[in-house]
Amino acid sequence: MGMFDTRAAGLLLHPTSLPGPHGIGDLGEAAHRFVDFLSAAGMRVWQTLPLGPTGYADSPYASFSSYAGNPLLISLQNLAAAGLLSAGDLEPAPGFPEDRVDFAEVIGWKLPLLAKAADRFLAGARGERRAAYERFSADSAGWLEEYALFMAVKRRYRGAWNAAWDRDIALREPAALETWRAAERPEIERQKAIQHFFFEQWAALRAHAAGRGVRLFGDLPVFVAPDSADVWADRRLFLLDRDGRPTVVSGVPPDYFSATGQLWGNPLYDWGELQREDFRWWVGRLHSAFALFDLVRIDHFRGFEACWQVPAGEPTAEHGRWVQSPGEALFAALRRALGEPPIVAEDLGIITPEVQTLKERWGLPGMNILQFAFDSAEAGGLTAENRFLPHNHLPHAVVYTGTHDNDTTRGWYAARTAEERKLVERYTGGSDPDVVRRFLRLAFASVCRLAVVPLQDALGLGSEARLNTPGTASGNWAWRFREGALSEELARGLRELAALYGR
To answer: What is the C-alpha separation between 278 and 273, in angstroms, rounded?
Structure first.
């Protein structure tokens, strides 16, 4: 059964937002209990953000690797249960805040513990445990060794961007690679073992979710971070200068989210080189994503039709230009290699007829954001033709109250003009004084086959629970919910809505 053959509902929550004693949500007990809650609430989908190791500003959309898992998501309690850490290693934990992630504190405390667990594992793993690690290393050979070397070298350069390393290793001269591989072999093996922990814990979580009838919905950024093993290991696939620095970078022109556009700074692809290799790099990236998830959203799908190219060094994204991408050829290659992968296209922002045609040609569901339906700043404005209004939705799509880039619905509504609030009340009938509840009803009632609600909206929280504000470099990604928030009453309310609207 395909994901879009029947109606379903789910919640959006990044694992870092889960509660727990170690300063950040992880893939351990709280994640398994969240799956149980989803099942009890009649929710059949758990959507997350990208799961890669985070770099700049702790953003899941700026990862050191398209393939690796984020070490900060590894459950230390699970490692202790496996005998790789002692109770003494975990006590006393720093006094981490309960309702937000202090990334610097978590990184400083957790990464040394992961290294300790990795050393114990490498020294002591025997039998099936060693065989499982060897299988993982062999299955991941296409990326694991390069990623581990990248992280080992990065550590020696105190976290510096790879383009700032000494020229011989930054540009991957063979003699330098050989020297570094030999010198850093212990750290390389440590990094590989840490990745094994992540993928072992994710596999256990995915199996638990499958047993509960919950599908995992992932997220894949179109672009990769400039400071990543992807760019360092495959420089020929990106538009870089002789020193390995981007000549042009990604972004979007001025729009709803930002008056000067958004300057993301990712290197752009050399699409000609990718096409000459029949998009093998992209096929591998999607294949890896579907080893983790049942369904994958591709962030900034727009980039497959054309990319906004900004000359490197520009202070904003205003002075860029659209440059065509070979989306048709790419999706033909993906279809040949992967069949019909369950992909959702993030089709927000400036969507041209060409982007729409590409999405429809390959049968990809798009996204409808309810907040945009009642926001006069959003393209289309306060008109009955606004594509985000539920009466304009199409079944083959995903409806959201808001996403990780939006304010919570309660926070969004508090900032609306009188005209916008009036339209919300007229459109929804205004029968429920709780605007968030009204939005949940709109989402669940939509003809879109999949409805996804951020947990913050399911909990009715305000702007204090916002996860990300686009265009800002700090203070994002930190929100966590508190232990006890997932009540039986909340599960019952969601279950009744799902049943009422055939989800």
So the answer is: 9
**Region for 203 from its dihedrals, namely left if φ exceeds 0, alpha if ψ lies in -120 to 50, beta otherwise:** alpha
Contact 133, 196 (CB under 8 A): yes
Report the b/e string of 444-475 with b at 16+ CB within 10 A: bbbebbbbbbbbbbbbbbbeebbbbeeeeeee
For the stretch 73-82, pLDDT in tens is: 999 999 999 9
Residue 380, pLDDT above cutoff 70: no
The confidence score (pLDDT) of residue 317 equals 93
Domain ranges of the chain: 8-500
Is 405 an active-site residue? yes
The pLDDT tens digits for 31-60 are 999 999 999 999 999 999 999 999 889 999
Catalytically annotated residue among 405, 407, 420, 457: 405
Rounding to the nearest 10 degrees, give the CA dihedral for residues 86, 87, 88, 92: 140
Q: Is 299 a catalytic residue?
A: yes
Among candidate residues 346, 347, 378, 457, the one labeled active-site is: 346
Most confident of 2-6, 261-265, 457-461: 457-461
- Mean of the per-residue pLDDT values for the chain? 95
Annotated catalytic residue within 299, 375, 420, 457: 299
| Residue that the structure tokens 């989908």 belong to | 45
- The CA distance from 125 to 35, in Å, is 30
For domain 8-500, the CATH superfamily is Glycosidases (3.20.20.80)
How many CB atoms lie under 10 A from the CB of residue 486?
A: 22
| Sole residue written with tokens 């969507």 | 351
- Distance in angstroms (rounded) separating the CA atoms of residues 452 and 369: 10
Q: Which residue has the tokens 């860029």?
A: 320
The Cα angle at residue 199 between residues 196 and 202, in degrees rounded to 5:
150
**pLDDT score, position 404:** 97
Alpha carbons 138 and 423: distance in angstroms, whole number? 57
pLDDT digit string, tens, across residues 385-411:
899 999 999 999 999 999 999 999 999
Separation in Å, CA 133 to CA 76, 111, 160, 200, 268 = 18, 20, 30, 9, 35
Residues near 435 by beta carbon (within 8 Å), at least 6 away in sequence: 409, 410, 413, 424
